[in-house]
Design a protein that fits this description.
This protein has about 400 residues and is of the alpha+beta class. It contains twelve helices and 15 strands.
Amino acid sequence: MTSAPRLVVVGDPAGRRVAFFQDALRNAGLPGARAVSWPDVLGGRATFAAGETVRLDSPGEDPEADRLLRGVDDPARVEGTGRWYERFTAAVAGLGRSVAGAGAVLVDDPAELAALFDKRLAHGLLRAAGVPVPESPTSGPGAPPVRGWADVRALTAGAGLRRVFVKLAHGSSASGVLAVETNGTGRFQATTSVERGADGGLFNSLRVRRYTSEREVASIVDALAPDGLHVERWLPKATQGGRAADLRVVVIDGRATHAVLRTSRSPMTNLHLGGARGDLDAARAAIAAAGGRWEDALGVCERAAAAFPGTRCVGVDLLPASGWRRFAVGEVNAFGDLLPGLTGLPGSGAEGLDTYGAQVAAQFPRTRTTRTARARTTGTSTKGTSTT
């Protein structure tokens, strides 16, 4: 008889992500994982044992981890992502050495996490792999640095770009993102969730706002630049119901398993900024009506995931061009699986499973068979519900 795996999850022990993973293990008939906090990892207090399998999850839900990584006391502050990246990647590399030294196994490759959390490096890897991505003057390790607004103006003018996204190279959840456009006559407008506090600091707001003064835009970009910036073409997106639309597609072990359509009246489709889940079936119908194939759209996501072969699960932000015929990849997210209530796509092999359940089933395939057999015995259903 095969012994049960000894699992460890590094994350926020009291957070949703760890709870969803523990639920997935329980539903699969597996023992719960030992939870290790990111503050313990960052403080050098985390230990591992031979035979353990270690999963890394996002430190984003843990305020103490955020404080230790970014060095700021207010989680709403935008600044500190450069420091976050240095400390996080160093911690993950050290954790990898500790896990290997203990005779345990780390699920994902620490070196790939370092690339995934640098938009410039990730963009360069995707481009080199032939994955369609927005044009960018800051793509790859040899790209010129962006030291402020003057560099943004020079780089975009040199590339002939009038509509661009300016992003924190190590940001997430649209933090610090500006959608900048110019009419070519020297007038600029930026759409962003960034606002200035009374002390001059930058804060993430739940309200998307527009700045129409170049002086204001330049001031924000100059303040963000020390943390590292990535610039890319702002592609015109397809729409649904008059709202801009994109997709988050989860790819597990090379296969697209879950997808959610996100729509918004602003350039950012993040749900906390007023985005909403759209109609995925209608999007698939629009792709077919345009002469495209849904399978090809998923194939773009799978090719993007293949650029990071040492990472078992990623969330791919897929940008459908206006008309629903062509697609580009905006970002690949290492921790892009937090999609509560969303079950697997038909034919994906993850039907009836949420993103965490699908990961457990992929890593321990016998548990899916056991789970299905148990459901048949008890007369319960394995089919979940989706909130898309």
